[in-house]
Amino acid sequence: MGFLLPFDNLVCILLGISFTVWITLLLVFIIVPAIFGVSFGIRKLYMKTLLKVFEWATLRIERGARERKHLIYKSNANGIIEKEPTSLEEEIKEMRRSGSNRALDSREFEMSDIFYFCRKGVETIVDDEVTKRFSAEELESWNLMTRTNNNFQYISLRLTILWGLGVFVRYCFLLPLRVTLAFTGISLLVIGTTIVGYLPNGWLKDFLSKHVHLMCYRICVRALTAIIHYHDSENRPKNGGICVANHTSPIDVIILASDGFYAMVGQIHGGLMGVIQRAMVKACPHIWFERSEVRDRILVARRLSEHVRDQVKLPILIFPEGTCINNTSVMMFKKGSFEIGATVHPVAIKYDPLFGEAFWNSSKYGMVNYLLRMMTSWAIVCSVWYLPPMIREEGEAAVQFANRVKAAIARQGGLVDLLWDGGLKREKVKDTYKEEQQKLYSRMIVGSHKDRSRS
User: Fold this and answer.
1) Long-range contacts made by residues 25-31, C-beta under 8 angstroms, separation at least 24?
2) Residue 285: partners with Cβ closer than 8 Å, 6 or more residues away
3) What pLDDT, on a 0 to 100 scale, did the predictor assign at position 40?
4) 8 A C-beta contact, residue 226 and residue 174
5) pTM to 2 decimals?
6) Contact 398, 310 (CB under 8 A)
7) Are 359 and 427 in contact (CB under 8 A)?
8) Is the CB of residue 20 less than 8 Å from the CB of residue 204?
């Protein structure tokens, strides 16, 4: 048994050296640069290399499909039915024009009107513009992950070996690295904000709180191998305002907070999230609500108003959609954050799904499963645009202001501007939507009050 001892010592020495080298590399190339906000360009080089590999893999798939005479599935983000933005009255008049010799301005019911509603119903079933916003989009080119390609099948030995090598790199190298970085970032956030929380209120506490948050968020960004392009930084949100952005993923918070300082708004949670929230609020005036308070709109509005009136406090970060959308569109903004009269700083976030799908389909994946998928992706690549601040105009309703801000975000991010409520992810269509269509048709047939009084 004595001859095993040198071997055991050798194993312990090798493990110790490996651990020391691993921690040293993390500190030198990732953690320390993240603290000071600098980059060695390794991630950009990594992204360029991946692009070349993806291009080769896509060309190889297309060539293999041609050789086997297989059809390649191509996604269409704009839908399979071409639609033009026309009103109900215009479309019904067009149908009457093509199918009847009666006067187009007739206010009488015609049987042909039924076909308009039948066609709209069939179009919605075949190509629903709402439901498809709650599922990840299919990529046109392959990124060596089976989860994002409907064309995945055996093509060649070289391509299969390359795919297997990709699986090994993502699960055996990137995943442990990212878990280590995420654990480091979260631990430092909890420890740092707890220590800062014991300091007396003043400029020193505010300074340390801001930079502890910024440092930890930057480390967490590195844990996702995130490559973020920030545009128009002169429009960054200022104190005493509200920052609103489109919502794709829980990491939207980290993406924005790694480039600026924000006060968070949210519901109080238990478990690990609760520990993080309690530590953060000690160092910075974040706004956390109890579960029973979330639906109290008056209380929420009062807390937000009190925060933004203090020009010293950080801007509030809010996602008015209230749910995650798949980054192809922007859905209805809840009006609550637009009623308090504060300056609104719009921000548009657009992810590149080629390197990793950031969208969280919460109805399909739990948080742990989602984080595992994120940490086993190649990278998270996105662009962030800071738009000029916007204020509510005189006589402008909160809903109109919300829609104006939403339109600006959609236009800048290249997203589809939809009026539908994101709550339709889990709820049925409200009767008010149906009644609105009924009112439009009724107004067309019966006419307005003035028309009836003239007749």
Assistant:
1) 26/177, 26/180, 26/181, 26/184, 30/181, 30/219, 30/222, 31/181, 31/184, 31/219, 31/222
2) 263, 307, 313, 314
3) 76
4) no
5) 0.79
6) no
7) no
8) no
